[in-house]
Amino acid sequence: MDISRRTLLQSTVAAGAAAAFATGSPAAAGAAPVVRGAFGQPVAQALTGHGPIPLRWLEGGTPAQLVAGTTWGVPWPRGALSPDQAFALVSETGESVPVQTWPTGWWPDGSVKWTAHAVSGASGRSAGYTLQPGTPAAPASAITIDENPGRVIVDTGVVRVEFPKHGPNLISAIRRGASVIAQDGRLVASRQDGPDTDGAEKVAREWFKSEVSEVKVEQAGPVRAVVRVTGSHRKGNRSWLPFDVRFYLYAGSDGVRVVHSFVFDGDENADFLTGLGFRFSVPLAAQLHDRHIRFAGEGAGVLGEAVRGITGLRRDPGAAARDAQIAGTWTPDPATWDQRVTSRLQWIPAWGDYSLSQLTAHGFEIRKRTSSGHSWIRVDSGRRARGLAYVGSPAGGLAFGMRNFWQLHPTELEISGAGTDLATATTWMWSPKADAMDLRFYHDGMGQDTYPEQLDALEITYEDYEPGFGSPYGTARTSELSFWALGATPTAADFTALADANATPPLLVSSPEHNHSAGVFGAWAPVDRSNLAKIAVEDKLAFMHQHYVQQVDQRSWYGFWDYGDVIHEYDRDRHVWRYDIGGYAWDNSELSTDMWLWYHYLRTGDATAFRFAEAMTRHTGEVDVYHLGKYRDLGTRHGIMHWGDSAKQQRISNAGYRRFYYFLTADERVGDLMHDLVDADKTFLVLDPARKIRTDAYTPQPEALGVSNTTDWGALALAWLAEWERNGDPIAQTKLINGAKTIAAMPNGWAQGGTLRYNLADGSYAEETERTVEVGSLDSVFGLIELMTELIELIDDPEVTAQWVTYCRLYNGTSAEQQEATGVSWGSQNLRQAYSRATAYAAHQLGDVTLAQRAWREFRTGHAGYPESLAFTATRIDGPAVLNPVDEAPFSTNASAQYGLAAIQNLALVGDHI
């Protein structure tokens, strides 16, 4: 049966379903907010309000530049503020800074849970700010938007950007005053029909250009505007590689931030991408010696050249001319130069084409040539470029670049035709200089044609293979680009500041203490070093996190498809992570690595921790999840190729792993990814996760789906929680509460076994009357524990609370305790250190000191994790035992993620009993 997304979201829920929360959208201007309780009833008490909170820049200090502006999120306690609350932003010097505010999350009582805020890079920057309820300052030049059926024009007060609603161009022109700085902004892609690596005598290549299908203004100022452009790449009758591109513009700024996402929907055996880029044409009217090229290197390095250089010649034009060209300002009239130079300018080559290519994480090269048809010459090279270039003149030009430039190799910044009236500036997200993108599966199946053979192979390589399941069709990647329409060639210092902002976009953040006081994201608390026992745990958490950050660089976990992920398990014989051994390779969010990293940031406020978690969120939500095709909304279990394993499951596409980043940054792309999963339960009609081991006769039916009440339901419920928080489709809240209530109504709640059947229409489970038990070690380690910690506080349902607390108390309990409560012993369960946080939760809820002490014993024993006796230290391994010197520690990623989550939650829940 084919049930469409629209049909599901418009379905009528069953008569007994919980009513939708009446949180509503932000109150109309001037109207008092209607505050309602968990089931829609009005709340009598008044909102409590909230005082000012401090903000700082994530990396500290005061950034020299922003990418157009910055947007960040702030949480608020339940019952404090109404969704229409206005905010003022005040700098350290007392200046009121223009700020735009909107709610992104709501509590069940209708009060605001999360707000997003935006400031422009044109505002004076301060090392710190205070955010407080109040009237925001108005920008000196607010954003204006002019829209008609053919185009959208956004005017920031400095630049005007025109978005045509049809055709090949995403941007038709960027104007600064009367000047067109850049035009014909379009996407380009190329493919060939065979790889570069198989020695084919001939391959056919073709080029595609973008074709816009829709332009939508998602936000219209006054400080921040967002324009979303969707479409695909087209040549002739073929349209493929759908894209979703958002443009962010800020009042008074000449910068444009771009979030570019595309989905691979080709045939991996016939479509080998050879280039993927964003291209502008840049008009150039100045003399060749007044046209400038800039590239940012590593550190503060900048290469600055002119298209026609007048320094180092056999004859000297004069210091004034040389100094002006080096500075990027207008050179004096050539009539004032030494005429031995002026009369021979035509003999000086004009270098019209430049390229900075970063084909690996460890080296870039800059080359140039006069024009097509002539040889390239090497300019210089370096290690890791910051990913920004410029072409223009003292009258203005375009700075263009890409974030994570070297991390997401193979990349390239290319300038061509700078010797003509119209240069071309291309940001290559996949460089044409690299080998063609090869997404074919890495082996031929090795005879694994049946389920028994596949299960047997799983026993040796830990890879769950199935023919046809290792397809990249529907996987995606998001890249962040930066453009500045500058009024003049930037100085070297200004250009390096732009490059820094491009590489690490500055972000404002609230403190761990404030975020914790708001009561968001469940059980965690800021770092606590108040006694020796806590210090010991904190030191281990810090060391473990630092080791993984270090491993990313030492092991070169970089590249277009790989950056952001880590490897699953370690091979201590080879002193390498098991990158080439089946399911032991890329982690793909297994056992909630993403969650561990985000909780680590929440506790510490550390910039490195944020950037590490951010990179993982960008990767796992795109590359490890299908966005099109028959596996849409499913993620792929860990493996050598991110999409290679045949276990396609909700536990990986899990919206709970993205919530942190969305609410902390208000990132619309991540919001889309979470929203897409609202009806992800429909995938159980298409693919049965238990198909290889099922022994019963089972045919998926919408009213009787085989959806587990733990791992499966927990992942689905986290998507519904995110949608409910964001005041989205009410079916999410309905399914969330129906699921929790009907599971709790089972005789053994979340421990209930047997043939559970789930109803797709309303999210409820069929009634269970027989007391059975089915408990597995993976049941709660994909976000279920974290979900329930939040959900119980939100819905305040005694039966749900009691059943979940019982489950938490019993998992590591004795057989006698389990048998008394559920009728049967649960057997010898794994991951007992991980589940020490379940014990801690039960202890916290019950006020049981004995349970709290038991939780710490379980944690220290370290079953299937890290016992207290394990030394959290690293050993240096040098050549010839390894290719490159590395630091080796006794970690596996499963154990690390669960150790981190258990330690963090135990400290928060029963820290006083450590």
Automatic annotation (TrEMBL):
Q: Where is the PcRGLX/YetA-like C-terminal alpha/alpha toroid domain?
A: 505-913
* Record bears the keyword Signal: yes
Keywords from the UniProt entry: Signal
Where does the PcRGLX/YetA-like N-terminal RIFT barrel domain start and stop, copy by copy? 53-133
A Pfam short name? PcRGLX_2nd
Q: Which residues form the signal peptide?
A: 1-31
UniProt KW Methyltransferase keyword = no
Record PROSITE patterns: TAT (PS51318)
PcRGLX/YetA-like central beta-sandwich domain location is 143-499
Q: What is this protein called?
A: Tat pathway signal sequence domain protein
Q: Which organism is it from?
A: Microbacterium yannicii
